[in-house]
Amino acid sequence: MRIARYTDGSEPAFGVVEGSVADGTAIVAGITPHPFAPFTFTGARRPLAEVRLLAPVLPSKILCIGKNYADHAREMGGEAPTSPVLFLKPSTSVAGPGDPIVLPPDSERVDYEGELAVVIGRLCRDVPAERALSVVLGFTCANDVTARDQQATDGQWTRAKGHDTFCPIGPWIETDLDPSDRVIRTTLDGEVRQDSRTKLLLHDVPALVAFMSRAMTLLPGDVLLTGTPAGVGPMRAGQTVAVTVDGIGTLTNPVTTR
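Structure for 2-hydroxyhepta-2,4-diene-1,7-dioate isomerase, as requested:
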């Protein structure tokens, strides 16, 4: 099931995307109250092409893992850590499909980082890895946008990762997905820059959910970014970046300046 958050010019709503996106026949069927509890269909049905997709959730927090692919750790100049490296992005960094990634004036290099994202479905704490997928609502695409120069100079990653628009997610949440071996690909102006598979994650989704939930309570709608593969690089205003995870879809965002 593909769960989207959208607007048709009125208040944002949740809906289920039905039909084929590829041939243009997909529609969004409205649901109430939200996907984190039993829901019913409202009867509203709109062609997908006639609505604007929004970020599929507004998380209380975005938990992220650094250097979770060995090839990315090497391209950053080091070995992969033995334990997950956890950091946070603020909820204000969230952007939706088609929203611009806004380059801040105080950074000279801003990079794309395509990732598989996990959306938590219910309140949980201390979840064992063998039950981790039971607390997951589904999966979406994400771009862990990073001001690389600020990451290098600050000594920690909060500012570099936390600018407004630095966490595009979407286009929707796919609830029926095995995340263990999915192609993840990032393009910049149509040119492939990252091309990998989630089976190469050093710490897989169940391990990450268990690790994060030992540190803090996870709430419905929280988003977990699982790490980016090798191939990260800078973006410039006027370019377009797209992150694709097979079985989910493609998240596309233009790049602009403030």
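The chain has a mean pLDDT of 96.
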